[in-house]
Fold this protein.
Amino acid sequence: MTYAEGIAQVQQRNQSILNVLGVWTQHDAAGAMAWFQQLPSGPLRKQATWTLVSTIAKENPQAALELAQSLSSGPGGQNIYDAIFSQWASKDPAAAAAKALELKPGAGRENFLGNIASQWAAKDPDAAIAWVKSLPDGHGKRAALQSLVYGLANADPGRAAEFAMSLPAGQMRDQAIGAAVSTWVNTDLQAAVGWVRQLPEGAAKQNALNSVSWQWAQTDPQTAAAYAQTLPAGNAQYNLLGTIANQWAQSDPQAALTWASNLPSGQGRNNALQGALSTWAQTDPKSAATYALSLPPGNVQNNVIGNVASQWAQADPQSALNWASNLPAGQSRDVAERNIVSAWAQIEPEAAAAYALALPSGQLKNQTLAGIAGQWAQIDPVAAVAWVKELPAGPAQRDAFHQVMYPLLNSDPLAAADLILSLPPGQLQNEMVGQIASHLVNSDLPAAIAWVQQLPDGHAKESALQNMSWQWAQTDPQGAAEYAKNLPPGNMRVNFLNNIASQWANNDPQAALAWAARLSEGGERDQVYRGIVSNWAQQAPRDAAKFVSGLPPGEGQNNAALAVVGAWSSSDPQSAAAWAAAFPEGHLRDNALGTVAREWAQNDPTGAANWLKGLPPGSSRDNAINSFVGNLAWQYPELAAQWTTAITDEQMRNNQMENIARNWMNFDQTAARAWIAQSSLPEERKQRLLNQGR
């Protein structure tokens, strides 16, 4: 019997045992439990835990929860609790909700609250809405709100959208709107599109547009295209143009290309051309390639040729290579050959590898070999690793190792660990050891800790410790903190402590604070406090702010205050702004109001603008406006430009005007040049900007 046959036989036996255990538990839970208790640790016990608990949860979720809490469920524990609360919420969502709120805050509880909200919304939407609104601000409420909207949208997407729109402006509302529209578009595209079009400009509308764009472009590309061209220039418009062209080309590539080629020059036109040609190449790569070669030389043509080459190679790599080999030497041919060989490697990795090894030495060959390694490892990781080990030492082998390691980790993490430890010490080994630690810790935390601890001291061990510290701190913060005591002073220890602080604060901020208070005074403890309050403020910003107010004055308190402001601004910018505005004049107040403006502008530019208008003149207002304008500049340069005159500090104003001009020139040179020419910038700076755009 081969090794593989032996493994298959064991898996088949275990599945039979689990099937019997499920039936046994339904008829005699006590007897099944007694048999389960005598199972030794190992894969079968982990699987049996799931079977036992999930079966009991169907009839008695309270008993199933108590059983799960009494067992050491290991890395699969989260899934077990998810199953319990899913069963519970389907029977009695109010009871499930009450029990979930008794659990410690953290990622697990957020999942349970979201699951409960979704199922409750299907049974009794009014009661579900009232419950979610009553939850305290934080990650749990955000998860429940988003799931509630999905649940509402399945029955009444219009109501779900209006409910989402009624939420306070911010990231939570934007995500809820996107969730509602993504469901609505599947049942009534026209109604969904009409509702999205009347939304005010901002992140909420962008999220909603992303949700409707695929269906709209498939159904009525001309109307979608006409609407896209009325949007303000920026990423939202560019992404929509690319999506429309991609979908339109599925039914009429010539019409899609004609429309795309007639768009004004800039990023929007580039996205549209790439979207249309990528789709066309799936059915007629030769014609798409001919069209791509007619485009003006440059980055747009290079990207389009690369997309066409990839699509062509999936159907006929030899024809694609013959075409690419006749291209003029340069970046277009390099991109085409690299993409063709990468696609070829998905079908015939050995043949693609032989071709790549014959390429001239250089960056193209290195990138091509790495691409082959990644594709080969998806098919046969053992063969891919053997091939990579035979490559000459150097950049090509290093990049190829990175590509094969991820599939090997998924199939056989211990073999991956042995392979990396067999490499000579150096940068490649250090990087790979860190990746292995991250992977092991998600499947078997105790084994991962033991493996890292036995590594010899050095850069590889430091890399592994940092990569595993997040999961260790999430699962066992006390153990991670105890281990940190023995780490030598330095960046490794500081980073490790910060990771502990962040994860611990997500689940139990008071325990994290008690631990931090026992650390020695100084910069290390200040950084730990900053990590704790940053995460705490995402769940209970007022409590975090109150704690920071009680810290001793100084740099440590200032950094902690800014961390709270940053987290608070993403969920409730009005309250964060009120707290920051009460700071005394100075650098802290300037930076805090700047942080509020930046976060607020990202999610609700109209609300941020109204707030800015009410700020009293001074350096804090200048900093806030500067942050607001800087956030808008990359997406809405025309709107950002209107605000520059409100910055009273001349140097700050001129620097921000240059920033806007450079962003604007990337996608609408005509409008940007007109604005630069009439701006208040010094003549020398005007000319420098105008000359750069030529």
